[in-house]
């Protein structure tokens, strides 16, 4: 990849952030806050979120361009303002605290899903049997059905059938937010979100890896390896280097939307005070700085991972076409 092509990608990636910020700013400015109605008021689940009851985001004492410039300047300094209410907690602090709860179960789930999903699909592709077809089918079904919903159904059924009669209170969803995500009582509550998220992400990785790995399964170097009598493990070892970057970053690029949906649903169902629950509450509570934070953070993550991926191909594995259309032979 030539330097000018990398610069173009960098500019396009960085331009995404102000576009998203502008879209959110305008939507908040021109759409009335439903929480001002007497018949409707959102009830946040996240313990630190307070509902904003201002009729509109746009302040009457400042013009829209002036307010836009003011907020853009604040966001460049990572200043998302403060929450409404008497406590007036920092929005940045609330976001950081919620990320801690999400990271406790999500990061281990990502690592396991990357390793397990890739290993299963790599072996299936390398065997030259219908195993690959079956593993991809299982992955598609697991993603389509939402495994976390099935897991939640089983979990709540277990709660009603076993926990309540036997007074097993530790099976209930109850978090002590003030004690932090690593408190023993909170770690126990993370078991179900961790298992559900791991299964869901593994299915996503198997589905993505199946398509990615199959593109390389019929390449000449793979055929030569098979002709020389290489077994599935050896064949898989030949294929993996050509796909490892894509497979390792899929969760934060191509599959980010599906991953975020999983986080939102899991945390909403299990009352985890993490980033997913905070995002839903931010939209319902209509706190401007909080909405900006929860929207811009995933976008920034996706842009950052894409840029790192581009730098990898430009500096370490320069086999990508300048227009980004694919990998050369």
Shape: globular
What is the CATH topology assignment?
Answer: MetI-like fold
Helix/strand-derived category reads: mainly alpha
Low-confidence stretches: 320-329
Q: How many domains?
A: 1
* Proportion of residues in extended strands: under 5%
Cα distance, first to last residue?
14 Å
Can you give the helix content as a percent range? 55-70%
Output mean pLDDT: 78
Radius of gyration: 23 Å
H/E series, N to C? HHHHHHHHHHHHH
Verbal overview:
The protein has one domain: MetI-like fold. It has 329 residues and is an all-alpha fold. The two termini are 14 Å apart. It is globular and about 75 Å long. Helix content is 67%, strand content 0%.
List keywords for this structure.
329 residues, mainly alpha, MetI-like fold, globular, disordered C terminus
Q: What are the SSEs and their pairings?
A:
Layout: H1 3-30, H2 64-76, H3 91-126, H4 131-144, H5 147-166, H6 184-189, H7 191-217, H8 220-227, H9 232-239, H10 244-249, H11 256-270, H12 275-285, H13 288-315
Helix pairs in contact: 1-13, 3-4, 3-7, 3-9, 4-7, 5-7, 7-11, 8-9, 11-12, 12-13
């Amino acid at each position: 990849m030539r330097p000018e092509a990398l610069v173009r990608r960098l500019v396009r990636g960085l331009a995404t952030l102000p576009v998203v910020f502008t879209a959110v700013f305008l939507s908040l400015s021109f759409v009335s806050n439903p929480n001002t109605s007497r018949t409707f008021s959102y009830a946040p689940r996240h313990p630190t979120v307070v509902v904003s009851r201002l009729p509109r985001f746009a302040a009457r004492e400042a013009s829209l361009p002036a307010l836009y410039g003011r907020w853009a300047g604040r966001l460049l300094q990572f200043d998302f303002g403060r929450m409404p209410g008497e406590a007036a907690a920092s929005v940045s602090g609330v976001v950081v605290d919620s990320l801690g709860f999400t990271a406790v179960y999500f990061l281990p789930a990502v690592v396991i899903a990357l390793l397990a999903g890739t290993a299963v699909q790599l072996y299936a592709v390398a065997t030259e049997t219908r195993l690959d077809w079956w593993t991809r089918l299982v992955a598609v079904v697991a993603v389509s059905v939402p495994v976390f919903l099935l897991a939640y159904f089983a979990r709540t059924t277990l709660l009603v059938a076993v926990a309540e009669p036997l007074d097993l209170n530790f099976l209930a969803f109850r978090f002590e937010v003030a004690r932090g995500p690593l408190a023993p009582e909170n770690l126990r509550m993370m078991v179900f979100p961790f298992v559900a998220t791991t299964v869901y992400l593994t299915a996503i990785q198997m589905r993505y890896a199946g398509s990615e790995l199959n593109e390389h399964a019929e390449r000449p170097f793979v055929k030569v390896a098979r002709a020389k009598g290489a077994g599935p493990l050896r064949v898989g070892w030949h294929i993996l280097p050509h796909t490892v970057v894509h497979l390792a970053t899929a969760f934060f690029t191509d599959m980010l939307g599906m991953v975020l949906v999983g986080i939102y649903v899991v945390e909403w169902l299990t009352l985890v005070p993490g980033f997913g629950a905070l995002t839903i509450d931010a939209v319902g509570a209509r706190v401007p700085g909080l909405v900006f934070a929860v929207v811009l953070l995933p976008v920034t993550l996706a842009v950052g991972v894409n840029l790192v991926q581009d730098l990898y191909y430009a500096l370490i594995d320069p086999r990508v076409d300048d227009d980004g259309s694919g990998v050369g032979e």
